[in-house]
Amino acid sequence: MWTTSPFSYYKILLSLFVALCCSLARLSLPLRGWRRPAAPVRGAAAGRQRERRRDGAAPTPTSVNYHFTRQCNYKCGFCFHTAKTSFVLPLEEAKRGLAMLKEAGMEKINFSGGEPFLQDRGEFVGKLVQFCKQVLKLPSVSIVSNGSMIREQWFKKYGEYLDILAISCDSFDEEVNVLIGRGQGKKNHVEKLHKLRKWCRDYAVAFKINSVINRFNIEEDMNEQIKALNPVRWKVFQCLLIEGENCGEDALREVEKFLISDDDFERFLDRHKNVSCLVPESNQKVKLEVAFHSYILAKWKYGLRTRSFHAY
Ligand code: SF4
């Protein structure tokens, strides 16, 4: 039984900054060979889900993005989750929130940032990943990272609890990476990407790549490099303007010089149409999802508050 009051329950959920998505269709696309066997939802949990659906109550938070930090070692000019605060929920509180989400029906968790491996040199995200797989037994546990701080030692310790690692890579030209803000001094982002690809293979973690297409990489041909890395999925985003994050008075970034038109984005997609793992994410689609997530989050929080009064 939870000892938390409805108010503290609500506060934890706010701190978690979850983006909820009930669209199983989008997230259940087949990823060949990567997914560890999923535990079907049975018994009391399944009953609760049915009950919620019948009540017309809050939707089930099937898939959750947990952006637990805004801090990052990179300074990408288009970033829309910037370091406006250094707050990170303490580990045990984060685990408690995750357990609540599991209780509410979560099946998939993705840890993101900022840079998730910055906190406690990757130990924080490692412990959360282990908790989600070992204790909560979630069918899908993933991380999105810029990859720069991940060491093989991390895979040795936590690799068995991770299903998917998605690494951001916007260019295979180091000069372009520096222009974008993904410079690492003497370190080479592309070399690190290849190391991470190998470690994912060695430790049986599915490997994905995320790319943001912007003014500086729009003309690049990435066909050969992506095919050589052979990710299970290559997610290609159109550079996005978010007021207050990368645009406007309070913003820590100025995205304007990175933006591209819809036609430019289509041109990039067309150039890479033979890469079978490519999944495009246009601005329109991401904006719709942001709006949808906000709506679902509000509905879900309200539902949990109501439910907590009844059940606890
Ligand atoms: S790596 Fe990601 S979180 Fe870090 S600055 Fe770049 S876009 Fe933002």
Automatic annotation (TrEMBL):
Region called Disordered, residue ranges: 42-61
Location(s), subcellular: Endoplasmic reticulum membrane
Q: Source organism's superkingdom?
A: Eukaryota
Membrane topology value: Peripheral membrane protein
Needed co-factor(s) = [4Fe-4S] cluster
Query: Which positions fall inside the Radical SAM core domain?
Result: 58-278
- GO BP, one annotated term: defense response to virus
MF GO annotations: 4 iron, 4 sulfur cluster binding; catalytic activity; metal ion binding
Q: Which GO terms describe its cellular component?
A: endoplasmic reticulum membrane; lipid droplet; mitochondrion
In terms of one coarse class, where is the protein primarily found?
Answer: endoplasmic reticulum
Q: Which UniProt keywords apply?
A: 4Fe-4S, Antiviral defense, Endoplasmic reticulum, Immunity, Innate immunity, Iron, Iron-sulfur, Membrane, Metal-binding, S-adenosyl-L-methionine
NCBIfam families (alphabetical): viperin (TIGR04278), viperin_w_prok (NF038283)
- What family does the entry list? Belongs to the radical SAM superfamily. RSAD2 family.
User: What protein am I looking at?
Assistant: S-adenosylmethionine-dependent nucleotide dehydratase RSAD2
Q: Which organism is this protein's natural source?
A: Nothoprocta perdicaria (Chilean tinamou)
Organism lineage reads as: Eukaryota, Metazoa, Chordata, Craniata, Vertebrata
